[in-house]
Structure formats: C-alpha cells, structure tokens
Design goal:
Blueprint (H helix, E strand, L loop, with lengths): L1 E6 L8 H15 L3 E9 L4 E7 L2 E9 L4 H15 L3 E6 L11 H11 L4 E5 L12 H21 L3 E4 L2 H9 L5 E2 L19 H5 L12 E7 L11 H11 L3 E7 L4 H14 L4 E6 L3 H10 L2 E4 L10 H8 L4 E3 L15 E3 L4 H7 L10 H10 L13
Parallel strand pairs: 1-2, 1-5, 2-4, 5-6, 6-7, 7-8, 9-10, 9-12, 10-11, 12-13, 13-14
Antiparallel strand pairs: 3-4
C-alpha cells in the first residue's frame, strides 16, 4: 500500500507526535509499504526534504505555520496527488495545528487535501477540561475543542479511528467516533549497551560507581519528560527512601528531558526539601542514545501522568520499550488505563514491600514492529483499477 501521513510538525526531537509519525511511517516502509509525510504546521523548516529514522529514509513535505493556510492546503494537495496514496493517516493533536488547540481551519482544508481517499485518524490527544475538577477556563476551551473534533469526524468521515487509551475511546464515543485502542510505542530506539553499561558523567560526579557491580548499592528512579505541577512527590518519595534503606541502598532520583518551567521549579523544591537523604541528578535534554542508556541502567521509572491517561504518554511508552517497571502515583488503576497494565505498579501501601523484594525488569523490547502491524491490519487493502492500456 501507499500511505500518506499528515501531522503538525516533524522537527526531529522537538515534536513528540512528529517523532512518533516518522517512526511509524519508517516501520511501515520496513514492512513493505510506500510512505510519505506532510507536516501542515511546521515550526522550523519548509519545503520537500528527506529525513532518516532507524536507518530508513522517507520523503517529507514541511509547510511552515507562517504560510497562509490556503497555500499550505494547496501544496499538500499537490504533494499527495503526485504520490496517490491508498490511505491517508491523520496524526491528530489539537495544539499541533493551532496555538490554542482549536484548529477550525483544518476541517474544510483537509477535506480538499484528502480528496476522497480513505482516511484513518489517530487521536493522540482530545479536549482539555473533561475532568470533574477542571477549572472553568479549561472546560470552556475544552468545549470548543470537543466541538471541533466532532466536526472533524462528521466532515472527514474516517474509515478507521484509533487512540491510545480506553479513556479516550469512551470520550470519542460521545462525539460519534467509534475508536479502537492502539498503544503507543516509544520514540527512543533501544541501543545495545554491551556488558559494561557505564554511567553518564553526572552519575560519577554524584558518587555513583560507573560499573554495574558498584551500582548494586543504589536504587535509581528515573523521571522522563515533563514534570507536571499537579504531581505530588509524597508519599512516593517516602516509600522509595524507606525501601532503599531496608535493603541497604541509597536512593537517587534522576530527571531527563525537558521538564518545563513549572517542572523545573517543582524539581528544585523537592531537592531542597529532601537533598540531605536523596541524591538528585538532573540530566536535561539528552540524545536518543543517552536516554536509552539511562532507561536501561535505571531500576524503575516514575509516571506523573494520571493512570487513566498513561496510554497517551510517550515517555511511559519509552520506559516500557526499555523494560522498566513503572510506578504511577495518580489514579486508582481501576478505570480505563493502559493495555500494558501488568507492568505498572501503583503507589500504595503495598509498594514498599514490592520494592524490597525487587521489581522485575524485563528485557528491552521495542514494540514499534508489533504496533505497526496492528496499525496496518486495521487498514483494508484498497484495490486499484487495472490500467486499460496494458
């Protein structure tokens, strides 16, 4: 098949949905299909280019947000017309197409771009403010986003709809979208560490031995990506610290990636309050290889996303790909959640004993191939007319 992917931006390492789209498209190519990518609201580059991911090249059209929408739609239509795809896949996140997350212009413009081709939509995010405790402003913006998503479904009439978690499946059903759950894979390729798996320099500077044997005296817990201001560090930190002491280890908390301004402030506050007993290491932005190394040497990952939305977290998906047990601290684990539920551990009264016994690590297993196969299986092969001049 020929599959065209449409997303907001595909600047490598700067857009999670763009990185996901690129890896999915490349894996489709590996599995014998032709693919192209159109970025309709790119923030950094413009024009046709070839990008590389996992050793595979793919042709892309990057249309900058500074270009009028009419011109973007015209160029996208010409690019896709020349490719003549069997399917078009829209990788949708509201804020990827509009700064306030209300992409009204997308609806009619996409109808012309798609030009009657079979459409699949992956809803990475829906509307904000659907929680009972959401502020009024979020609920008002969310109402407009919900209406926009409803119009997208009604106008574009997708033949297949996917989303990453059961909570979103239920919400889409309310606006007429019959979605199927499709788990996320991580955007961080698993690297081969070899037998030594030496630690990054920040760890050595903090007094953690570089060799694997020396690390046995430490409990390494990693936070990856945005640290949400709603996240409460207790009781988790107390549980981790008590468990570490019971088994004769020291506790080290590690953050990697962009935490965001509020996350940086929260991390600094936690460090001020716990710095005498816990070692803190802030790695900041890292290369994919460095992140993969960190996720493989850590003992556990901490998810700050609520349980019912764990499936939408690309950072959690990366932890799972790298075999990390993941502790979640928000939500009760009973409603919705992730298809990877057996590999999560709730922060509750039983967690300390589990930590003392040791949370099992799995062998790293990149799930992009398996999830891509599920994606492709949901797209029926479209028969093409046989040319009459043959």
């Amino acid at each position: 098949m020929r599959i065209a992917f449409i997303c907001g931006s595909i600047e490598p390492g700067r857009d999670g949905v763009g990185d996901y789209t690129r890896r999915l498209a490349v894996e489709c190519i590996r599995q014998g299909h032709e693919c192209r990518i159109v970025a309709l609201n790119d923030k950094r580059s413009a024009g046709c280019q070839t990008q590389e991911c996992d050793g595979v090249q793919i042709d892309c059209l990057r249309l900058p947000g500074s270009l009028p929408w009419k011109q973007r739609f015209e160029q996208a239509r010409e690019f896709l017309s020349a490719f003549d795809p069997d399917w078009i896949s829209l990788q949708f996140v509201p804020y990827g197409f509009h700064p306030k997350g209300i992409p009204w212009r997308l609806i009619c413009g996409l109808k012309a771009v798609i030009a009657g081709k079979p459409l699949q939509i992956m809803f990475h995010e829906l509307w904000i403010g659907f929680g009972a405790a959401a502020p009024l402003k979020e609920r008002c913006i969310g109402a407009l986003q919900r209406l926009c998503i409803s119009r997208i479904i009604q106008t574009l009439k997708p033949r297949a709809i996917h989303t990453s978690n059961a909570t979103y499946v239920g919400l889409l059903k309310r606006v007429g979208g019959l979605a199927t759950e499709l788990p996320l894979f991580g955007n961080i390729p698993v690297v081969d560490l070899g037998p030594e798996s030496a630690l990054p320099a920040q760890f050595v500077a903090a007094g953690i031995p570089s060799n694997p044997a020396g690390r046995s005296g430490w409990l390494l817990a990693v936070f990856f990506g945005t640290l949400h201001p709603e996240w409460e560090p207790q009781p988790l930190l107390g549980i981790l610290l008590r468990a570490a002491k019971r088994v004769g280890k020291r506790l080290c908390l590690v953050s990697a990636g962009r935490m965001g301004a509020s996350g940086e402030a929260l991390w600094a506050k936690i460090q001020r309050e716990n710095g005498e007993e816990i070692v803190f290491i802030k790695c900041g932005e890292q290369s994919g290889e460095q992140i993969s190394t960190l996720l493989q040497i850590a003992d556990l990952g901490v998810a700050v996303t609520p349980w019912e939305l764990l499936g939408k977290s690309g950072t959690v998906a990366a932890m799972l790909d790298h075999g990390l047990p993941v502790i979640y601290t928000r939500g009760d684990g009973n409603a919705g959640g992730s298809a990877e539920a057996p590999f999560f551990h709730r922060c509750d009264e039983a967690l300390e004993s589990k930590l003392v016994e040791g949370l099992e690590r799995r062998k790293p297993n990149p799930r992009v191939r398996e999830i891509c196969a599920r994606f492709l299986a949901s797209l029926p092969i479209v028969s093409r007319p046989v040319p009459t001049d043959l």
